[in-house]
Design brief:
Pfam families: ABC_tran. By secondary structure, this protein is α/β, with parallel strands linked by helices. The chain contains 7 helices and 10 strands. Bound molecules: adenosine-5'-triphosphate.
C-alpha cells in the first residue's frame, strides 16, 4: 500500500518557489491500479516522484506498507526504493548494449546477490519476461525490439525485486493506441497477479477501463478521487497480453 499524507512539495524557481503539490493525500491499495490524471503541469510527475521516494517532500509523509519513508535516512530510503518500489518511466530507459534478460539480471544484481545465485536470477528474469509476453525475446537488445516490447522489458525489470509499490509514468506515450491498450492491460494484470499497489500517470483516459481508481490533480491538488474499490470494467477487461 502507498499512503501519501498531507504532502506539500515546492521547487525553487529563481527567487520564487513553485508549489507543485499542495497538501496531497492519497491511498493506493495492493492489487489495484490507481490512475493519476490532470492537465500538463498539474503535478502528476511530482506526485509520482514523491511516491517513488525519489524526491523528499517539504512536508507530509509517504508510507510504503508500514514503513514511513519520509522518516528514513537517505541510505535506508535507497535500500527501500530498491527492494519495495518498482518504477517504469515514460521512455523505457533500457541500456542499449544489454539483452532483455541482461536488463533484468543487472537490476537484480544491484541488490548485491552473490554469484552462487546467478542461475536463480537468470531463471527469475526469464519468468518475468514470460509474464510480460516476451518469452523467446530474452536475447534481443533494445534496438531489436519494438517500442511496445521495450516497454514490456521495462515493466519486467521494475518487477525484479517483487516490489509492493509499482509506479508507472505515462507508459503509452510513445505507442499507438492499440499497443498502448495492451501495455495498460498488462500493467493491470500484473498488478493483480503480483499484488502491487500501482500508481499510473496518464494524460488521457482512452484506456480508462484498465484503471481501478482515478485521481485527478489540478494545480497541485487532488480535486477528485474514486472510492478505492475496483471498477467492474477493469476486472472484466483483463486478458493475458501477448507480445506487441
Ligand atoms: N525541477 C523543477 N524545478 C522547478 N519547477 C518544476 C520542476 N519540476 C516541475 N516543476 C513545476 O512544478 C509543476 C508541476 O510539474 P509536474 O512535472 O509535476 O507536472 P505534470 O502534471 O507531471 O506535467 P506534464 O503532464 O506536463 O508532465 C509545474 O508548474 C512545473 O513547471
Amino acid at each position: 500500500m502507498i499512503t501519501l499524507t498531507d504532502v506539500t512539495l515546492t521547487y525553487q524557481d529563481g527567487d520564487a518557489r513553485i508549489t507543485a503539490l499542495d497538501r496531497v493525500s492519497l491511498v493506493a491499495r495492493e492489487g489495484l491500479v490507481t490512475g493519476i490524471v490532470g492537465p500538463s503541469g498539474s503535478g502528476k510527475s511530482s506526485l509520482l516522484a514523491v511516491a517513488a521516494a525519489l524526491i523528499r517532500p517539504d512536508s507530509g509523509s509517504l508510507r510504503i506498507d508500514e514503513v514511513d519513508v519520509t522518516a528514513l535516512r537517505p541510505r535506508e530510503a535507497t535500500a527501500l526504493r530498491r527492494d519495495r518500489i518498482g518504477i517504469v518511466f515514460q521512455q523505457s530507459n533500457l541500456i542499449p548494449s544489454l539483452t532483455a534478460r541482461e536488463q533484468l539480471v543487472v537490476m537484480a544484481e544491484l541488490g548485491g546477490r552473490s554469484r552462487a545465485r546467478r542461475g536463480a536470477v537468470r531463471a527469475r528474469a526469464d519468468e518475468l519476461l514470460d509474464a510480460v509476453g516476451l518469452a523467446g525475446f530474452a536475447d534481443r537488445r533494445p534496438s531489436q525490439l519494438s517500442g511496445g516490447q521495450r516497454q514490456r522489458v521495462a515493466i519486467a525489470r521494475a518487477l525484479v525485486h517483487d516490489p509492493s509499490a509499482l509506479l508507472v509514468d505515462e507508459p503509452t506515450s510513445a505507442l499507438d493506441q492499440e499497443r498502448g491498450g495492451e501495455i495498460m492491460r498488462l500493467v493491470a494484470l500484473l498488478t493483480r497477479e503480483r499484488a502491487t499497489a500501482t500508481l499510473l500517470v496518464t494524460h488521457d483516459l482512452v484506456h480508462a477501463e484498465t484503471l481501478d481508481d482515478i485521481v485527478t490533480v489540478v494545480d497541485g491538488r487532488i480535486v477528485s478521487e474514486g472510492d478505492g474499490s475496483p471498477r467492474p470494467s477493469a476486472v472484466d477487461s483483463l486478458r493475458p497480453a501477448r507480445t506487441s
